[in-house]
Structures are given as structure tokens and as C-alpha cells.
Amino acid sequence: MSHRSLPRRLYRLVARAGTVLADRGMGPAFLLPAVILLFIILVGPFFYTIFLSFTDLSYSTPGHDGNFVGLTNYRRLVTDDPVFWHSVATTLRFVAASVSIEMVLGFGLALVLASQAHRPRAVMPLLLVPMMLAPVAVGLLWKLVLQGEFGMVAYYLRKIGLVADDTSLLGDASLALPTMVLVDVWQWTPFVTLVALAGLLGLPRAPFEAAMMDGAGRVRIFFDITLPLMRPLLAMVLLLRTIDAFKEFDKVFLMTGGGPGISTELLSIYVYRVNFRNWDLGYGAVCAFMIYLVVLILCKLFYAALGQAGGGKST
Amino acid sequence: MSRGWRGAGKAVVLAAIMIGLVPYLWMFLTSFKSRVDALSDTPRWVFSPTLAHYPEVFLRKDYLPLVWNSVIIAVGSTTLSLLIGVPAAYAFARLSFKGKEDLFFFFLTTRMAPAISVVVPMFVLFNKLGLADTRSAVILAHSTFNLSLVVWMMRGFFADIPAEIDEAAMLDGHTRAGAFVRVILPLAAPGVAATAVLCFILSWNEFLYAFILAAFESRTLTVGIPGLVTPHGTLWGQVAAVAVVATVPILVFTALVQRHLVRGLTFGAVKG
Prior knowledge:
A: 315 residues; mainly alpha; MetI-like fold; 2 domains; 13 helices; 0% strand; B: 272 residues; 75% helix
């Protein structure tokens, strides 16, 4: 042991103590700005929504700042607003139809890609295009190709006899919602494919090799091994798509604006209309609050699914 | 695997690609079509292209400032979210403290928060604060989803860096904050870049917040699109031109972050 080692040890000791002290302060210093920003832009507005929901604030009466009206708005929502409940039903149909089709098509396409042993990911950049476009642009381009008189897709659909000559896919009250579903499927199926393919390619090989040795067929292997192994991931994708479909606004707003009539009026579009067309902000706050609650519940489910899909490998 | 089976698979993949690309290609072509070609009742795939719509809508109709608004808002929101979110992500990756996972869940809910619900109170509050129709209002609003995207993605990237590296840096005399800035951050730079690009894309593509909070002076390209669609006599060439300018940069950016897309869109659950 040389005499130099003592100062060096001392130095290390001091440095270590300093580090520990700095560490103490680091957690808050690193986390607080993010938490504060979220309180300003999210938690504050959230509670302000609840506050507004007890008032009759309306921008259609100038100078009126909103009086406290108790539970009036909530009573109106439950007993006196069939249009709201119609939009709830429309939203549920939209979500159920688009998400289930996306899951089946998206996972199916991922299985096909994974079975093409040579570089299964190579075509993903081309497949991804629809999901990267701004939803408003997607709405626009579908409005363009579905136009009755000159729309390219409408023309070919008529040509192959899928659509009668005089039907307008966006203008017919019974066809408009299914059309919205198909556009959503067009945009988001690639997302399911992308994630499912990543999951499929990351599966352990051993169970498959063992099953092949035992002479199991392709179908058996799919149902007994692939599907169970993929289930946590698929559950996560399903919830993610459900949450996003539940919030859908842009495409439908651009293509139909909720019409014809109220046939495609999703919850988000109804809430938009109450708040920013009728300027009924007190009542609109109640409706907005309801959407928030549903998403919060879906979020909780998603978080649970995420823990399973991550398989405990998250930090 | 049989040859027929593989051929069928190829056909399915090809069909999927065509279904995805052809409508977009059609819009792209429409932006170069004269009015007669665009409104022809049989689809015209071959036509003599015109460049007139781009200057018409961006210069004469003054849509150029919208591009600028989109850029400023996307860059602003990305920068704000990175500055605040990256340190928070590091804290989540390295420190253990009470209520950590609850706080993390809270960040998730902000990513998922329905815009239509958040924008109602924001609209009233920003009006009271005099922030109506400003780019700052939209930048703040876009941080609702971008900040949590940063926290979620970067936590994963930091977790991939072994904690021993921090410890070694601290043994060399760095404080933990110093180790973070001088040693860990450079190692995580590719992750930061990928996250930044994703933030930019999300903000650039966003419609509802921007539409409600800044519908006039500060409106973005996406907000400018519906205004050009009218019940009768929509000038499809011009709207298509706006949509092309609004989407082509994003497709280029997507190519840059391809590798990190899965992780970014699944909250780090799948590494892709």
C-alpha cells in the first residue's frame, strides 16, 4: 500500500457522498417538470370539466358566465337526450365492427408474411402507408375516391356490380356507417399487422420444433402454440385499437360530418356539435366527461394487458 | 411448404399493398389533374399533368403560412416534450420510489386521453388566458400525447443501457445527473432521435386540438383541409395538392424511424 492511496480513497468517499446527496435531489428534479406540465395541460382541465358540468355555461348567450345548476345537466343526459344515446350505440357498432375486422385481417396478413420465410419485414414500409397519413387526409382521399359521379373506387365498385348505379356510399343513411368502418379498416389494419408480425418473429422456436417432431399439423400448431403465445400481445393490440376507434373523429368528420342525418354521428362528433356548434359548454362538459370515464376504464385494462405482453421484461 | 401455398401468400401480400397504395396514389395523381380530368366520369389514369394547383392554393390562396404553422407547432411540441420528458424517463428507468408504477400509469392515461374531452375545458381556459388562436396553445395541447410518448419510449431505451455504465461513470466522479448528461444521453441518442421523429409525426398529423384551439391565424395544414371541401364545387385538384404536401414529408420521416415504429406505437411492450 502506497501513501497515495489514502487521499484517493478519501476523494472517492467524498465523491460518493456527494453523489448520494445529488441523487436524493435528482428524482424530483427530473420528474417534477413533467408532472407539473401534465397538471397544467391535463389534470387542471379535467377537474375544470367536472366543474363546468355543474354549470349552464353557454357561449350562445354573450356575457353569461354560467350559473351553478346542480345535477341538471346529468339529469338531462340520462333522461332527456336520445341523440346522445343514439351516438353511444353508433360508436359501439363502429368500434366493434372496425376493430374486429382489423384484428382478423391484420393478424391474418401477419401470419402470411411470417410464413414467407424470406425477409418477412421487407414489404412493411409499403404496407404501412395508410396508418402514417394524417387521418384528415385519409378522410379526404376516401371522400375523393367514393364520390358518386367521378370517384375512382365508386366507379370500379359499380363496374363489378358491388354497388348499384344510383347508390352513394357516403350519402345513404344505411351505408354510410359501414363505409366509415371500411375506411378505418383500410387505415389501421397495417398497424395490427406490424405489431403482430413483430410478435410472431419474436416467438421462441423451441415449442414449434417440438411440435413438428411430434408430427403436429399446421392447424394444430396454430391453435395449440401460436395463438396461446400471441394472446397477450393480441389483447394489447385489441385494447389499443379499441381506445383509438372509440375516440375516432377526424375521418368521419371530414367524410360525412356525422350525416346523413345522424347516421354516422359518433360520440366524439356529437360532443363536438354540442360544444362548438351549439356552444352549450355546460352540458357539453358532461358528455365530454363521460367519454373520459370510458377511456380511463379501457386504459386500466390496457395497462394490465401491457404488463402481460411485456412479460415482466419492462424495468 | 408447397409452391401453390407460397404463391397464394404472395398474391395476398401484393393485393394488400395495392389496396393500401392505390387510393393514395389516386389522390396524388388528382393533385396534377386539370378540372376536366379530375371530374371525368370514367377514371383517367393517363392524362396531361398540370402543376397549376400547387401555386394556386399555396400562393394565391395563401396556404403557405399553414405549412409554417404546422412546422413550428410540430417542432415546438417535440422540443418541449423531449426537454421535459427525457429526464423523467431516465428517472423512471433508474430510480425506484414509492408510487412509481402509479405515476407511470398516469402518464399512460395522458397518452390515451380523448382529445374531444380535453379540448372542451382547454378551449374555455385558453380563451380566458388570451391564448385563443395561438401556436403556443396548440403546442401545449399536443404535449398531452407527446410528453407521455417520450416518457414511455425513452424509459425503454434507457432500460436497455446497463445500469453498470451509470455506476462506472459515477465512480469516475460524475454525479448521477452528470452521468446522465455526459454518458447515458449520448448512448441513447439514436433513441432520442427516433422518439423526436415520432413526436413530430403525431403533432403534424393531429387535427382536433389544432382545429378547435387555432382555427384561423395559427391553423395548421390538417386544419386547412376541411375548409377546401364544400358541398358543391370542391376544387379537388387544390385540396389534393394540400393533402399531398401534408402527407409526403411524413412518409419520408416514417422511413427514418421504421425500426422503432413498433416500440413507439406499443408503448415499449414490443421491441420489434
